[in-house]
Specification:
heterodimer, A: 274 residues, elongated, B: 320 residues, alpha/beta, Rossmann fold, 26% strand, ATP binding (chain B), cell membrane (chain B)
Chain lengths: 274, 320
């Protein structure tokens, strides 16, 4: 007996479950959009006057154009926090154990999770850009530029989603699951998200230039503002592929292992309960 | 050893499992005939949940063979999964969905047709009396209600073999009785039930056969009656007002009774039948001894449980 014929139907069934969760209990979804929007308001209306000159060498009005790609990148990170949290909640509930005792296409659980998270992150990015447009964001990129930017954002979302799934599967507690991806939210700031890297102190500057968010942000900025992208897009795609493969392998390994055979806390819980 | 002839729903041979240094299952053998209730009885930590996890494909054994519904749990896990339903100790409902959505989710994952799914959900709603709370999310349910939904979800695909891991732990007496009735109805419909419990009464009430698991080993197996016969639990306790009375009674029942000078009691083996009581009182009368009170103790599964689990522990202490 094989469950392969049910690959699509099982994945769709579980995707429906995830989307129902997001719509019915929107606290996580609100945080995924809310955090970058709050930072957007802060950076443009509070720090923008001071930062704007340093960042874009131009007047305040243009700083929003500089900062939006950084906050859009941050949205992929807040999406990762949401993903990790949702996965961890699922793992602490018995329902996933139930799924494992049923003749279901095994990867469906992970596929449904990743698709739901991608949809959530991409919709959140659209909302953040919508708010930015209301605040005076004026992108000048072509249609092809937009498509490219969406593509690169989809790739980084995909990569961070797999990483976040692994965080959620391996976290011992819900707190750990929501904290693990948290540094990702800060990374765009220690990159070219808020101010150009060449204004940073030595050491920090090298980190900022070589961390994965910077080429992603630079590519999105270039494509949306119609400025040169250079080799940034190649580096960005490379980073996305590396993170995706690592996150995927880690997630699959974490999902397939016998949780109770690790000899750790779960084993003791299993033995004590049994 | 005679090989059982009726069709077997579950058979387990030499099953072993350790977590690191800790041996959880130390060579378990058991057979469960189709259409019967088999109860695995044991204290906390005996390894009951580990047995259920292995039989329901959640955990791989270190050694030994287990087949469920005719399929090997290691080599054909999907075939096993297609034949079983599992209700574990911890609630396996989706708390963010309501009862209807939880049941529909199961119908889709069991790959029932739309019409079959709808019919099955309606049947279970009726059977489990879920009507009142059908539209509220499961996280608002009481413990008993959640457990009922949990079991209903297990039954959506009409599995032929059902694992119930401590299904009534933490339930109030009324919910417990409801659960028992549901289990009896299931078996009346030809389903095989593998039940773990730490409640002797539950095993006594429900099970066709009972195995006592202690520290990873089966220490006794049989019907409730057979197990009760294995332990010398039946006795009559006579209580006396003075040590002098106890002395005289002890002389009457010399070699038969066990005296307790602190409690002023004499314990005499016996099944508590009217004849046995009459004979006993007759002997007391003819010796002119008056007992202050009398109590009858019939063997129950508590005796079995304590006798076997203690004995096993003693053996280990001696060996170790």
């Amino acid at each position: 007996m094989s469950t392969l014929p049910y690959a699509v139907s099982d994945s769709v069934t579980l995707l429906g479950r995830n989307l129902k969760h997001i719509l019915r209990y929107p606290t996580t979804a609100v945080a995924v959009v809310g955090i970058p929007v709050i930072f957007l308001l802060l950076f443009v209306y509070v720090f923008g006057g001071a930062l704007g000159v340093a960042a874009s060498g131009a007047a305040h009005g243009n700083y929003v154009n500089y900062v939006v790609p950084g906050l859009v990148a941050m949205t992929t990170a807040t999406g990762a926090v949401g993903t990790s949290t949702s996965v961890s909640v699922d793992m602490t509930e018995g329902i996933v154990t139930r799924f494992r005792t049923m003749a279901i296409f095994r990867p469906a659980f992970l596929i449904a999770r990743v698709v739901a998270s991608m949809l959530q992150t991409l919709v959140s990015i659209a909302l953040v850009i919508g708010v930015a447009l209301l605040m005076g964001f004026r992108p000048t990129g072509s249609a092809a530029g937009w498509l490219g930017a969406i593509g690169i954002l989809a790739l980084i979302s995909f990569a961070l989603t797999w990483l976040a799934v692994a965080f959620g599967l391996t976290a011992k507690t819900l707190d750990a699951a929501s904290n693990a991806p948290f540094p990702l939210i800060l990374l765009p700031m220690i990159g070219s998200g808020i101010v150009p890297t060449d204004s940073m102190a030595p050491g920090v500057r090298q980190f900022a230039e070589y961390q994965p968010f910077t080429p992603v942000i630079e590519t999105v900025r270039g494509l949306l503002m119609d400025t040169p992208v250079g080799s940034n897009w190649i580096i960005a795609v490379g980073w996305c592929l590396v993170i995706t493969v690592a996150g995927y392998l880690w997630s699959v390994r974490a999902f397939n292992r016998d949780r109770a055979s690790q000899g750790g806390g779960m084993a003791q819980v299993g033995a004590a309960a049994g | 050893m005679a090989i059982p002839t009726p069709p077997l729903a579950i058979s387990v041979a030499q099953l072993r499992k350790s977590f690191g240094e800790q041996v959880v299952l130390d060579g378990i053998n058991l057979f469960v005939e189709e259409g019967t209730i088999f109860s695995l009885l044991g204290p906390n930590g005996a390894g009951k949940t580990t047995v259920v996890k292995i039989l329901s494909t959640l955990l791989a054994p270190d050694d030994g063979v287990a087949t469920v519904g005719g399929h090997d749990v290691v080599r054909e896990p999907d075939a096993v999964r297609g034949a079983i339903g599992v209700t574990g100790q911890f609630s396996a409902v989706d708390p963010f969905l309501n009862a209807e959505e939880n049941l529909r989710l199961m119908a889709r994952l069991w790959h029932l047709s739309r019409a079959d799914g709808r019919r099955r959900v309606a049947e279970l709603r009726e059977q489990f009396d879920l009507g009142d709370t059908f539209a509220k999310p499961a996280l608002t349910y009481s413990g008993g209600m959640r457990r009922k939904l949990d079991l209903a979800m297990t039954l959506v695909g009409s599995p032929r073999i059902i694992f119930l891991d401590e299904p009534t732990t933490g339930l109030d007496p009324r919910s417990r009785r409801t659960m028992w009735q549901i289990v009896r109805d299931l078996v009346a419909g030809g389903v095989t039930v593998f039940l773990t419990t730490q409640y002797l009464e539950e095993a006594d009430q429900l099970a066709d056969r009972i195995a006592v698991l202690d520290k990873g080993r089966l220490v006794a197996e049989g019907t409730a009656e057979e197990l009760k016969r294995l332990v010398p639990g039946g006795h009559i306790v006579l209580r006396f007002a003075t040590v002098a009375d106890l002395d005289r009674a002890a002389r009457v029942f010399a070699g038969e009774g066990t005296r307790d000078d602190d409690e002023l009691t004499l314990q005499i083996p016996g099944d508590g039948s009217v004849q046995a009581l009459q004979a006993l009182l007759g002997r007391l009368n003819s010796a002119s001894v008056t007992a202050q009170s009398l109590s009858i103790h019939t063997p129950d599964l508590d005796d079995v449980f304590l006798a076997f689990t203690d004995q096993a522990r003693l053996e280990r202490m001696v060996r170790g």
